[in-house]
Amino acid sequence: MSAVAPVVSLGPLAYRSERMARVVDLARRVAGSDANVLLTGESGTGKERLARYLHEAGPRHPGPFVTVACATVPSELVESTLFGHEKGAFTGATERHEGRFEQANGGTLLIDGVDELAPSLQGKLLRVVQERAFERLAGTRTIAVDVRILASTQVDLEERVAEGRFRKDLYYRLNVIRIDLPPLRERLEDLPILAEEILRHLALGRGQEPRRLSEEALQRLKGHDWPGNVRELRNTLESATIFHEGAVIPAAAIRIESGRRPEPESSARRIAAAARQGVTLSELEEIYIREVLRRTGNRRSEAARILGINRKTLLEKRKRYRIP
Fold it and tell me: N or C: fewer beta carbons within 10 Å in the chain?
């Protein structure tokens, strides 16, 4: 019988799975460097927490850790938010404002949702990544900063590059080291210890004794697909602790849809049915590509690997079949 892997905890990144062990091992190895890191993964997988770990475990930890969430900043304010502005730069700019790069000087800057940046800002960001220098909006003085840059995204940036929606040179500058965080549904063995860690943090914040899950409640959690990943798990457990006051949380307090989404009929059965219905080879290819993309969570690189084609060919086929 193989030994049970020990539990390792990095806050809400508590884990015992080999998948997460490889992620954290890579993070440990690059934490001490100043290399740019691209963090990828679905929403709620813990990209910001891992970014904080990279900062806290590295030599920049005495300095600031600053985050800018591009998706939450109005498009007309993104440039000012990142690079700052001078007084009078635009209507309402009544005084000089330091941007996130200046605020992160001597520390680390996480650009969350870097894919949201407009092409014009991608060019300005490229200059900062290369030269660590920029001008404030409407400014004339070049400002030098000493910042480690981390970027995160939940989309396929390689595909954005292929589509001409993201600068290739910027992508390669940000992607010096890439760390992919797996979705919770692909590391369900971590769910019990994640839940325990989350419940402990919730109790600590309220000055209470930690709650625990009943076995039925835990099984109910394991039966869910977790599209919102660890963030959804935390919200679910916080809700359960609010609506149930006992020390042990029952399954009835877990407010999620029970069970997994039903699996579609097998691929072999679908192919046989398609043949009976006179489906063409081209139509069958479309069905298969759609199925592989669905099963990989729309992760194009993984889908291309399974299909045995390169990413460019996959992109061409998606355009041909109008697959989003």
Answer: N
